[in-house]
Amino acid sequence: MFKKFTPDSMSGQSRVKASVARAIRSQLVEQYPMMEGVFEELIPKKAPVMVAKCQHHVSLVVCGGEVLFFQERNGPFFPTLRLLHQYPQMLPTVQVDKGAIKHIFKGANIMCPGLTSPGARMETPLEAETIVAVHAEGKELPLCIGMTKMSTDEIKKVNAGIGVELCHYLGDGLWKLHPFE
User: Fold this and answer.
1) pTM higher than 0.85, yes or no?
2) Span 87-114, average pLDDT
């Protein structure tokens, strides 16, 4: 999603009204209920919230000069990796083997064999279309965020095709967009 993203990819940014900021905050609490107390700290009620519109119908939620979340069309909100590194418990995790790391850094989707090999782990049963943090074998912090294309049971059973569709990874255009001006 952000492989070729640059600051020029943004078509505009605007400060949103308090009611829109409240709606964004309530959507985030609904989507990530375990993080409710953290959202009050991340997006305070009186703080100005900006929404930057980008190409391919992507919106960035910015507060305090930092991009916190992104959304494609009216889909779910995805946290950025910088936010996920601060709050790693925010998303369920899957782990890929060492062989998948170089492909992820080039923006490739994660194939099922990379999730079922000996170095990989999928401990939590997940449904299809679940937002996940992807860790690498032997690494502490996640290296990308994606959405499962199949449930974990299907991934183990089929073991072919795309298991996790990549949305944001270390070194992509959104990662390099720091700090946000």
Assistant:
1) yes
2) 92
